[in-house]
Amino acid sequence: MTDGVVQIEKKLGFFPLIALVVGTMVGGGVFSLPHDLAVGANSGAIIIGWCITAMGMIPLALVYQTLARQ
């Protein structure tokens, strides 16, 4: 008699591994790029960058809020 357990073979192919490597490289660059840009910029440019980022993040947060309520 079986106990209802299904064995799933876990295997990554060539293209999923390539996507994993590319995603890791891009993800690492996302965290180092702001530091590199901030070193070469003045305070005004950094504040403008924060404002532009906020203008993009606030609508995104509102969308997630709306989706969470559904």
List keywords for this structure.
70 residues, mainly alpha, flat, transmembrane helix, membrane, Arginine-ornithine antiporter, transmembrane
Tell me what you see in this structure:
It comes from Bacillus cereus. Keywords: Membrane, Transmembrane, Transmembrane helix. One of its GO terms (cellular component) is membrane. InterPro entries: APC_superfamily. It is found in: Membrane. The chain has 70 residues and is mainly alpha-helical. The chain has a domain at 43-70. The chain has helices at 14-40, 43-69. It is flat, with a radius of gyration of 21 Å. The two termini are 42 Å apart.
Strand percent estimate: under 5%
Dominant shape: flat
* DSSP E strands, number: 0
Helix content: over 70%
Average pLDDT number: 86
C-alpha-based Rg, rounded: 21 Å
Task: Determine the N-to-C terminus distance.
Answer: 42 Å
Discrete helix count:
2
Going by helix content, strand content and strand pairing, the class is: mainly alpha
The stretches of 5 or more residues where confidence is low (pLDDT under 50) are none
Order of helices and strands: HH
| Largest sheet composition | none
Transmembrane segments: 12-33, 45-64
Keywords: Membrane, Transmembrane, Transmembrane helix
InterPro entries: APC_superfamily (IPR050367)
Organism: Bacillus cereus
Condensed summary:
With 70 residues, this protein is an all-alpha fold. The chain has two helices and no strands. The two termini are 42 Å apart.
